[in-house]
């Protein structure tokens, strides 16, 4: 396979000797040959595959990752956010239907949902690298893309620290190691500030509601539960198995949380005030004491903005209860 750098160097070195006459003037025949040759060389070089290296991604898969990939497809909102935070949003040629931050992500071509993205759309976008997470994407998607010659690099985070490590790992894969280190160093300082402030405070018991009917919460080995611990709380579901365990209302009531947190999203319809009237929920001490709060949905995404949610949770856990008629109940 021709080496493009050597071809380019040859054109430069032999340009005067081969394509110019001894009088220092380009001849007509040489000009025609040059005009015919160079476009072909440029097209050929552009079509050459990127050099690649075999690495193990964060899910344990071996992936042939191109060096400095320029055409990226993100299959998860958290990855899209991280790519923009690393300053490579312009490399994104496609993302999932759920990638909504920053606003520029909405303007990218969408390849479908996280569970069943369109392989046809992905192929048409000619990515150098696809990025996904096992929490949102299926292993079958990675296997199908591999058969099509398209590498998928998997990122995974079960804690706040692992989220920061994923950001650094992604930066290294994309040739943005310095930018990733600068970003993560700043985020790490904020995490330590929260940890230090929460260290000497009372640790309230917390129920985090992923979904309320049936009641689904965050298990111990999730970045959500870890954020609650760092913020100074004790998740009442820490002893439950699985990442997103179900919990009966009776069992949750028995565990008697001091504070109940909900992720604020468009799909979550009841207001906090309405929850006070729902059968079973109105019996919680946290409900009677008006210790129910919506938190930003960034707590659901292992991205740089997870630290925003961490700081928000810390403020909630260590603030006085709102009045029954306060704004929190009307949200």
Features:
single chain; 331 residues; alpha/beta; Rossmann fold; 3 domains; five-stranded mixed sheet; four-stranded parallel sheet; globular; disordered N terminus; disordered C terminus
Brief write-up:
With 331 residues, this protein is α/β, with parallel strands linked by helices.
**Tally of DSSP helical segments:** 12
Q: CATH superfamily membership of the largest domain, which one?
A: Nitrogenase molybdenum iron protein domain
Kindly report the CATH topology of the largest domain: Rossmann fold
- Just name the CATH architecture of the largest domain: 3-Layer(aba) Sandwich
Percent helix range:
25-40%
SSE ordering: HHEEEHEHEHEHHEEHEHEHHEH
Average pLDDT metric:
84
Q: What's the number of extended β-strand segments?
A: 11
Sheet with most strands: 5 strands, mixed
Describe the structure.
Helix 1 packs antiparallel against helix 2, helix 6 runs antiparallel to helix 7 (about 175-200) and helix 7 (about 175-200) packs parallel to helix 12. About 35% of the residues are buried. The chain has helices at about 5-20, 30-45, 75-85, 120-125, 140-145, 160-175, 175-200, 225-230, 250-255, 270-275, 285-290, 305-315, and strands at about 50-55, 60-65, 70-75, 90-95, 130, 150-155, 205-210, 215, 235, 260-265, 290-295. The protein is an alpha/beta fold. Helix 3 links the parallel strand 3 and strand 4. Strands 7, 8, 9, 10 and 11 form a five-stranded mixed beta sheet that branches. A four-stranded parallel beta sheet has the order 4-3-5-6. The chain has twelve helices and eleven strands. The chain folds into three domains: about 5-45; about 50-155, Rossmann fold (3-Layer(aba) Sandwich); about 200-330, Nitrogenase molybdenum iron protein domain (Rossmann fold, 3-Layer(aba) Sandwich). The radius of gyration is 26 Å and the shape is globular.
């Amino acid at each position: 396979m021709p080496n493009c750098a050597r071809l380019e160097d040859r054109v430069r070195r032999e340009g005067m000797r081969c394509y110019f006459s001894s009088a220092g003037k380009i001849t007509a025949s040489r000009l025609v040959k040059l005009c015919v040759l160079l476009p072909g060389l440029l097209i050929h070089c552009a079509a050459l595959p990127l050099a690649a290296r075999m690495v193990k991604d964060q899910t344990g898969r071996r992936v042939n990752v191109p060096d400095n990939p320029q055409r990226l497809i993100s299959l998860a909102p958290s990855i899209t956010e991280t790519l923009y935070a690393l300053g490579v949003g312009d490399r994104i040629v496609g993302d999932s239907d759920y990638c909504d931050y920053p606003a520029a992500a909405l303007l990218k071509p969408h390849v479908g949902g996280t569970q069943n993205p369109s392989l046809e759309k992905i192929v048409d976008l000619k990515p150098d690298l696809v990025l996904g997470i096992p929490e949102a994407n299926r292993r079958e998607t990675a296997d199908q893309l591999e058969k099509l010659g398209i590498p998928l690099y998997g990122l995974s985070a079960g804690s706040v620290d692992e989220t920061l490590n994923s950001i650094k790992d992604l930066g290294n894969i994309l040739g943005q190691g310095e930018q990733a280190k600068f970003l993560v160093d700043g985020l790490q300082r904020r995490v330590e500030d929260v940890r230090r402030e929460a260290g000497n405070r009372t640790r309230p018991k917390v129920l985090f509601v992923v979904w309320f009917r049936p009641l689904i919460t965050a298990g111990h080995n999730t970045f959500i539960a870890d954020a609650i611990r760092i913020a100074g709380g004790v998740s009442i579901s820490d002893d439950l198995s699985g990442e997103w365990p179900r919990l009966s209302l009776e069992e949750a009531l028995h565990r008697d949380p001091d504070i109940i947190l909900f992720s604020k999203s468009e799909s979550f319809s009841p207001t906090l005030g309405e929850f006070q009237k729902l059968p079973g929920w109105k019996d919680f001490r946290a409900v009677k004491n008006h210790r129910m709060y919506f938190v930003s949905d960034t707590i659901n995404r292992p991205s740089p903005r997870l630290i925003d949610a961490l700081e928000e949770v810390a403020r909630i856990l260590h603030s006085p209860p709102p009045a029954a008629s306060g704004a929190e109940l009307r949200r």
